[in-house]
Amino acid sequence: MGAPTPAMTTAAAGLSVRAPLAAAALVSALTLSVATFELAMADWPSGFVLLLVVPLVALIFCGCALWSATLLLRIRKGGLKFALPFLVCALTLAVLVYVPLQQIALQQNFYWHRQARERIVARVEAGELKPNVSYNKSLIALGDREPNVSAGGNDIVVDETDEGTYVLFLTSRGLKHYFTGFLHVPPGGDPKKFFEFKDKPPSQLVRYDKDWYFVAN
Predict the structure, then answer these.
(1) 133: which DSSP letter?
(2) Is this structure's pTM higher than 0.85?
(3) Residue 70 DSSP one-character state
(4) At what angle do helices 6-37 and 46-70 cross, to 10 degrees?
């Protein structure tokens, strides 16, 4: 049998880097997805899952990055293409460090659901939607017939005050009454006056637009 032709050698080398590159891309995509939507997945009971998923994904990514670094030793014989898996991991790490992925996801959440949420606020203010959960007089269960605008079962929290109605749309609902969400306040309202912050001010308070705030307790 004759010696391998240059074309055969090139094809074999190409195949040898294809699998590592695909693996690096897959692990990087998984890592970025978890980092981006970690806050949205913090609901009970999925919050418990995150306690396992986040460290596991971090461990897999670190292992993948170290493994891709060993491929750099093959550049001399196989060419610069063997640096591609390491480059993918390096770019992913840079994104994790320098790009505010969760803030970007929250901004998309806010603008994507804004119109639907404002329609629901108007219905609450008009008295069309009222608290309907027996064990919580401040909770409105929107149910499956309404747009999915609030995490943790599509429930919203309302607070009727003399200055108007506060409406909270949840983005996460964790343990020990922890929550994050977009709070709509009445004109001139103060988000710190929302009843959930009566005993303790919000740990996060970011204004997104007129009468709209992102809050966390």
Answers:
(1) B
(2) no
(3) H
(4) 150
